[in-house]
Amino acid sequence: MDLNQLECLLQQLTEAKDQILKTANYCSAYPESATQIAIMIENEFIQTRKDKKRIYLYLIHQIILDENQLKRQDNPFLKAFGGKLKKLLGDFCIVDDIKDLESAHTIIKRWDRDQIFHPSFTSKLKSILQPKYDQLKQQQETFNALNQTDASANKVLQHNIQTVQSIEQSHKIYKHLKQLADIDSKTLEFNCSYDKFDEKTTSNQELQGLIEEGETCREQLIQSIIHLQQFYIDMAIQGENLQSDYYQGMQKKIDYYKEKKREL
Length: 264
Hints:
Radius of gyration: 39 Å
Mean pLDDT: 78
Number of strands: 0
Strand content: under 5%
CATH architecture of the largest domain: Alpha Horseshoe
Low-confidence stretches: none
Number of domains: 2
Number of helices: 10
CATH topology of the largest domain: Serine Threonine Protein Phosphatase 5, Tetratricopeptide repeat
Shape: rod-shaped
Helix content: over 70%
């Protein structure tokens, strides 16, 4: 076996399936060097970034599957990696992505199904991963809940924006003010032409009509202003509630990230 070539393969290893198969096939071709190969893979596994550790776990899994298919009597790779898996999975638990742990669980289940390791051994491997899995699962649920809270708040806020944009009270007040201006104009016209009316009854009727129209318009204006004031009061209260919910959500996020920072 060429150690330099193996080292090069390990350092250039990516998640691409063909690369993992190529490297696993190279390793499987040298069962007499199983212990040395396991040590080299272990070193790469421990030294690599936590977001790349799953790649070397995939490689170990593929080498073990290859050996199981070849049905070697002495199972050198199974023995070489079997003594290191507890340590490697303990190191694997520094990952931050729950999908990495789910992948590891899937691999162990495959070993269970194919009866590669004894059930008590695979149970021990699962127990090593379980606390970290539970922790990441809880963090994920908390994070999802926070995002859902934000989404709900944004939905309410968007609804309120649409309500404000579609409000007609301000337009109604404008119409009433314009109507009052028209009444003022008619009143002025009436005063200017009062002397031209021959019949006093006619002028009284017109004046009474202007008075009634003015009173009606004034009442409508007052009611519109009251409705508008109440609307903005309600909006202010709702805004305060939204602000309170927003700050509570932000505090939860801050607490969440503080907790995550303490775990690093």
